[in-house]
Amino acid sequence: xxxxxxxxxxxxxxxxxxxxxxxxxxxxxxxxxxxxxxxxxxxxxxxxxxxxxxxxxxxxxxxxxxxxxxxxxxxxxxxxxxxxxxxxxxxxxxxxxxxxxxxxxxxxxxxxxxxxxxxxxxxxxxxxxxxxxxxxxxxxxxxxxxxxxxxxxxxxxxxxxxxxxxxxxxxxxxxxxxxxxxxxxxxxxxxxxxxxxxxxxxxxxxxxxxxxxxxxxxxxxxxxx
Length: 225
Hints:
The chain is mainly alpha-helical. Helices cover 72% and strands 0% of the residues. It has 9 helices and no strands.
C-alpha cells in the first residue's frame, strides 16, 4: 500500500516497534482486506432475515432502503473528500510558505494525516459502491416475486402482520408484559388492517397453525367460519 504512514519515533517501545516492522506486510494486508460494510451473506441472512422481512415485498423494500442509504452516504463522502483535498492543499501551501520550523512541522503533520485519510476514504468509497451493486443484485433477484415494486404500502400490511404474528408465537410464557402487549398489539392491528383490505389469506398463507389461532382469539370476526 502506498503512502501508508510510518509511526513517529518515540511513540513505541523498541520491542513493539520491531514487532510492527517484522509484521508490516501482514498488518497492511489485513487493513486492506478488512470488512467495512455488509457481505452478501449478511445482507441475505441478517438484514433480509425471514422474521423481520417475511415476504419478498418486505425484503425488496428493505433492499431499496439499504441501497438508497448507501448511495446517500457515498454523496456525503464526496463532501468529505473535497474537504480533505482542501485541507491537503492548505497544509502543502503552509509547508512551502512557513518560515518558522515549528509551523512547517505542524503543516507536515496535517499533510500526512490528509494523505492517510485520502487512502481510507478511497477504500471506504469503493466498498460503498460494492454494497450498492450488491443491493441492486438482491433487488433484481426479488423483483419477479414482488407484488408492487412502486408503492410500498400495497403489501406492507401483509408483511408486517406476518412479521408480528411470527414474533407473537415466539413469546415466552414469562415474557415482559410490555413486550407481550406491543407484539400482540402490532400483530392484531396489522392483521385487522390486512383483513379490511381483503389480504388476510395472504397473511396466513404458509404460516404455522398457531398464528391462525392468535387471530382467531383476538380477531375472530376475521376468520371464516
